[in-house]
Amino acid sequence: MIDRIDRQDSVVNRIIDGSITIDSIEEFEDLLKAFPNDPRLHRVFADRLLEVKSINAAEEYKTSAKLFIEAGMPLQAITCKIFEWQITKPSKEEGLALHSALCESNPQNLAVQEFFTKLAYEEMIDLIAKIVPHNYPANTMLRKFGDEVNELCFVVSGALEETNFHRVEADEKIQKKSTINLIESDIFGEIYPFEEDKLSESEIETITRVELLKISKLKLTALCGEHPNLNLLMRNLCKFCFESNRESYSRTVRKATRHQLPMQVNLKVFQEKNGKPPLNLSGFTDDISIGGTCVVLGAKYQTGDIAHLTGKSVKIQMSLPIESISLNILGTIVWGKEIPVEGKKTAIVGVQFKEINHVDRGILKGYCFGSEAEQNLIWSLWNSLMEK
C-alpha cells in the first residue's frame, strides 16, 4: 500500500518511532554504546532527557545535531538546535559555528536540505527564530480540501499521505486525482507567491508519528521582505517542489538502508566467572554498524532473564547472505531486553564491538554502506531465505 516508506521493523527504528519505549536513562546510555554515531538515537535520548528535565538534554541535542550534519541532514540538525537553544541561549560564536558547519556539509542531494546550506548567517538565525517544531500522532488529519493554506511545513521525520483532488468542469464535482506519500525532507504548503490567497486542493493525513517544522505565511513573508536572498532561495525551493512532479524530487526510501541489513549470527557468550562453558545462541542482526549491532534471539530464547547477559564478553560470528563469508568479531553485550512481537516475547541484545581485524572491518563496512542495488539484492536473498 505504501511503497515509499521503509517498513523494516528494526529494533532501533522502533525505539526511534516510539513503538518501543526505554524508560531507564541507564538502559539508553548502554544502547548508545552499541550505536554511538546514530543521530536519530541521540535525538530520542535528548527528548527523553528533556522529559525528565535533565540538565544534560541540551548537550545531547548538540551531539545529535553534529551527527545529523555529518550525515548530510541539515534540516534534522536545525531541529535539534532549536531544542538545544530553547534550553540554553546560544552565543554568537555558537551560531556562527552552526552556520559554518551547514555551509560545509554535504546534503543528501535534496532540495530542502540544500536550501538550508545556502542561507547566509543572518538569514539562518532569523529563520530558526521563527520556525516551530510540532509533533503529531499517526492518523491525524492535518489539512482538508478547501482549507486556507497559510503555513509552510518541513517534514523532519515520519510519513504522511497527501490526496490530491480536482474539479470536473462539467458538473463542478470534486474527484480524487492522485495519492502520494510525503516523507522526511519533503515540504507541503503552497504559500508562494505570497500575495496570492490559496485554498488547499488536497488532504494531508499522517501515516506514522510525524515531526514538522512550521512557519506561518505571514512570518515568512516578513522575513523574505527583510532578506532578498532568502526570498530568492524560498521562491526557487517552492517552485521546484510544487510546480514539478513530487515523485521527481522526493527521496524514495530504500527497502534496505544502512544499519538494517539482516545477517544470520551465532553468539558465543563467555561465562568465565562462574566456571560454566560458553553459552551458544543464534539469531540475526536487526541493526548493524561498524561499532555494534542489535541481535534478535527470538521467542526460542529460554535461558532466563535476558538482562543477566549484560556485561558478558561474546564472540559473534556473522554469515553474509550474499556470499560464503563469515565474520568473527569480539564484543560485549551492553544491554538486553524483551519486547512483544505478534503476541510473543522476543529477546534482543545490543553488542558493542571491541576487536575487528582489518579484513573483517573492510568487509563489514562494504556490507553496511553498499550501493542501493547491492542492498536490494541482499534483501531479496534474505527474504527468499526466510520463506524456505
Instruction: Tell me the fraction of residues in β-strands, as a range.
Output: 25-35%
Kindly provide the name of the CATH class of the largest domain: Mainly Beta
Total of domains: 3
Quaternary organisation:
single chain
Widest sheet: strand ordering = 9-10-11-14-13-12
Which key phrases capture this entry?
six-stranded antiparallel beta barrel, about 25% strand, four-stranded antiparallel beta sheet, 3 domains, Thrombin, subunit H, disordered C terminus, Jelly Rolls, elongated, about 400 residues, about 35% helix
Describe the structure.
By secondary structure, the chain is an alpha+beta fold. It folds into three domains: 11-129, no CATH class; 133-226 and 237-249, Jelly Rolls; 264-387, predicted glycosyltransferase like domains (Thrombin, subunit H, Beta Barrel). The protein has 13 helices and 14 strands. It has helices spanning 11-16, 25-34, 39-51, 57-70, 74-87, 92-104, 111-117, 121-130, 217-226, 228-243, 246-249, 358-368, 372-387, and strands at 132-136, 141-143, 151-157, 160-168, 173-182, 187-188, 202-206, 210-216, 264-269, 279-288, 292-298, 313-319, 326-341, 344-355. Mean pLDDT is 79; it is low at 1-9, 247-259 and 371-388. The radius of gyration is 23 Å and the shape is elongated. The protein is 37% helix and 27% strand. It has a six-stranded antiparallel beta barrel with strand order 9-10-11-14-13-12. A four-stranded antiparallel sheet has the order 1-8-3-6.
